[in-house]
């Protein structure tokens, strides 16, 4: 999956949006109601029968999520723009990266979903680079989420609630298994994200992960489809994009924050990776 591409749609989500819609029926539970959910860092899980008013945009979420279409079809935002999410497909979204989804037609869109809030010092449950669409059988996860909701609204037996909570997480883990980034690689990128202004090279990256530069190249090619230094540039531009949208910092200040010597070199790199100049992106 290429990380560097020019956006194909002008309809780029830019405003934080949380709209369930008057005609949407939603059933959910959270960790405040069911403490057992915290064992797996789940903060909310539920099902939604969504109308075309159903719309969510999270620009820099501190949570990760998996959302699966059970019936009907909605739209979700990926690096290639808005894409359909038909029945039997999941939209997997990591923390800190913008994601969006919405109902699109007069037909109702049935989804089930699980939201995670992992501590910052552990490998997140969803350890992906970008929002991703993949095939997934919704039946078992939908059944587990429904069972959890029904138990909570009937007898609310703590032991049974814990069993249902673990089932929900187990079914999510099965779906995510083939998408997981190795722990060692995740720790490298987590450290880079905290030190984007550092002058990184492949040797310093490999040293931090206690692996050889060549093995780091292999891991990056396998899991990111790019080289280690290209991925560092991608992380820098993701942070720069967030600063452009959420602050009034000048380009020179942003450049220094993410490890570039001046605004000119930063602007060239930003346009190459993001498809827009920094000022054009800020004005979207």
Automatic annotation (TrEMBL):
Asked if Magnesium is a keyword of the record, the answer is: no
Molecular-function GO term, any one: DNA-binding transcription factor activity
| UniProt KW Transferase keyword | yes
User: What Gene3D superfamilies is this protein classified in?
Assistant: Homeodomain-like (1.10.10.60)
**Which EC number(s) does UniProt give?**
2.1.1.-
Q: Which UniProt keywords apply?
A: DNA-binding, Methyltransferase, Transcription, Transcription regulation, Transferase
Q: Identify one Pfam family in the record.
A: HTH_18
PANTHER family, from UniProt? ARAC-FAMILY TRANSCRIPTIONAL REGULATOR, HTH-TYPE TRANSCRIPTIONAL REGULATOR EXSA
Record protein name field: Bifunctional transcriptional activator/DNA repair enzyme AdaA
Q: Which organism is it from?
A: Poriferisphaera corsica
């Amino acid at each position: 999956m290429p990380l560097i591409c020019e956006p194909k749609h002008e309809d780029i989500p830019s405003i934080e949006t949380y709209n369930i819609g008057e005609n949407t029926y939603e059933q959910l539970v959270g960790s405040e109601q069911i403490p057992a959910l915290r064992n797996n860092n789940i903060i909310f899980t539920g099902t939604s029968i969504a109308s075309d008013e159903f719309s969510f945009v999270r620009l820099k979420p501190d949570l990760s999520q998996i959302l699966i279409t059970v019936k009907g079809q909605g739209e979700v935002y990926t690096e290639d723009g808005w894409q359909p999410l038909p029945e039997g497909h999941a939209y997997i979204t990591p923390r800190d990266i913008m994601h969006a989804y919405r109902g699109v037609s007069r037909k109702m869109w049935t989804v089930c979903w699980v939201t995670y809030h992992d501590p910052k010092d552990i490998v997140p449950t969803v350890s992906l680079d970008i929002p991703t669409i993949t095939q997934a059988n919704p039946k078992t996860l939908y059944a587990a989420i429904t069972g959890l909701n029904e138990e909570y609204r009937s007898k609310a037996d703590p032991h049974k609630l814990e069993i249902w909570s673990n089932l929900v997480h187990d079914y999510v883990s099965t779906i995510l298994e083939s998408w997981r980034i190795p722990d060692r690689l995740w720790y490298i990128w987590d450290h880079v994200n905290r030190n984007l202004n550092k002058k990184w090279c492949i040797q310093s990256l490999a040293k931090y992960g206690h692996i050889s530069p060549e093995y780091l190249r292999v891991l990056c090619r396998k899991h990111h489809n790019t080289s280690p230094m290209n991925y560092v540039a991608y992380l820098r531009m993701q942070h720069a994009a967030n600063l452009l949208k959420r602050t009034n910092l000048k380009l020179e200040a942003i450049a220094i924050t993410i490890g570039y010597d001046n605004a000119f070199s930063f602007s060239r790199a930003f346009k190459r990776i993001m498809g827009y100049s920094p000022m054009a992106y800020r004005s979207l």
